[in-house]
Automatic annotation (TrEMBL):
Main enzyme class: isomerase
Substrates-to-products reaction catalysed: UDP-alpha-D-glucose = UDP-alpha-D-galactose
Organism: Sulfobacillus harzensis
NCBIfam families with a match to the protein in the record: galE
Entry keyword ATP-binding: no
Family as reported in the entry's similarity comment: Belongs to the NAD(P)-dependent epimerase/dehydratase family.
Biological process (GO), any one: galactose catabolic process via UDP-galactose, Leloir pathway
The keyword Iron is assigned to this record: no
Domain NAD-dependent epimerase/dehydratase: 7-249
Name of the molecule in the record: UDP-glucose 4-epimerase
Length: 320
């Protein structure tokens, strides 16, 4: 692997840390930037504690061989973004824009691989959904991802900034060390696993969607597949690929009900799930078309089978 530094913003989080570990495993030089207070190293990877909007964080890289920025830092909860849009616009747009300007000042044109989201689509008209579909985000969170994609496109047009925005669907699973551990946890698999680990029935939000079993259908992608696509996206840019947006999912839709029932394979005497009302802003079906990722990145998901994702979520809950 190229010996230049790969900066991972938000690299103490679930996805960023998994990316940093894989870069390290492939012989690269990851450096994490995260504002959480923690040791100066994690898994042998240097950590700079700071906010991405702070110029001093980026000044330290001046004159160094920085190969790429994996931009994972940000606030991630759709529901919270509805209640507190100011924080979401500030962190996901203002701080990100500050970062881009400091990068221009101190480093010039460094390729950016951005953690975007399927939330940019809102409620899609079809499934699977392709990148050319209209963008109609239904939450401030989704708006921030759409706007940051637009900022990247404008910086590319005006300043030649290379970038790939990766629209993740539902990331899940573990690389063997890093596990999903959000607080609060709003993602289905770790949340269901936590309920079951305490003997409580898992909660399903809505069983009156127009889907095969009435529960919402989602696309779950294993973190190992997600991470390998990031490194492939960087290769793509290095080989002269045009900046673009790419969906990252498994390409397969699984209903919430099916995923919850899949826990029966690992949990003895599993209690029946409790169905409550729909969560505001949850579209009925969100499944990725991954044709573009396959074509441009020569990538395909290899670890995203639901049984494995459920097993790993259960192991994660037991090891908490
Ligand atoms: N997890 C998913 O399924 C999913 C789906 C779609 C998109 N995404 C996007 O992927 C990215 C990573 O998600 P995650 O699940 O790893 O989240 P996470 O909450 O585990 O990690 C995010 C990290 O970013 C850090 N951070 C936030 N703002 C910062 C700032 N201004 N400066 C420095 N550090 C900052 C936080 O301290 C945290 O460690 C996010 O941008 C998220 O919106 C995630």
């Amino acid at each position: 692997m190229h010996r230049g530094i790969s900066v991972v913003t938000g690299g103490l989080g679930y996805i960023g840390q998994s990316i940093a570990r894989e870069i390290s495993a492939r012989g690269g030089r990851p450096v994490i930037i995260d504002r959480r207070a923690i040791r100066p190293q994690v898994q042998g990877i240097p950590v700079i504690q700071g906010d991405i909007r702070d110029p001093e964080v980026w000044r330290q890289f001046q004159g160094q061989d920085v190969r790429a920025i994996f931009h994972c830092a940000g606030l991630i909860q759709v529901g919270e973004s509805v209640m507190e849009p100011a924080r979401y616009f500030d962190d996901n747009i203002v701080a990100g824009l500050g970062m881009l300007n400091h990068l221009r000042d101190f480093l010039g044109s460094v390729p950016i691989i951005f953690s975007s989201s399927a939330a940019v689509y809102g409620t899609p008209e079809k499934a699977p959904i392709g990148e050319e579909a209209p963008l109609r985000p239904e939450s401030p969170y989704g708006v921030t991802k759409k706007q940051f994609e637009e900022i990247l496109a404008a910086y590319h047009a005006a300043y030649g900034l290379p970038y790939v925005a990766l629209r993740y669907f539902n990331a899940a699973g573990t690389d063997g060390v890093v596990r999903e551990n959000h607080d609060p946890e709003t993602h289905l698999l770790p949340r269901v696993a936590r309920f079951l680990a305490t003997g409580e029935p898992p909660v399903i939000y809505g069983d009156d969607y127009p889907t095969r079993d009435g529960t919402a259908v989602r696309d779950y992608i294993h973190i190992v597949d997600l991470v390998s696509a990031h490194l492939a996206a960087l290769e793509y840019l290095a080989e002269g690929g045009e900046p673009t947006v790419i969906n990252l999912g498994s390409g397969r839709g699984m209903s919430v009900g099916e995923m919850v029932q899949a826990f029966r394979a690992v949990v003895e005497d599993m209690p029946e799930p409790r169905v409550v009302g729909r969560r505001a802003g949850d579209p009925p079906v969100l499944v990725a078309s991954i044709a573009k990722a396959q074509r441009l990145l020569a990538w395909r998901p290899q670890h995203s089978d639901p049984e494995r994702l459920v097993r790993e979520a259960w192991q994660g809950a037991l090891s908490r």
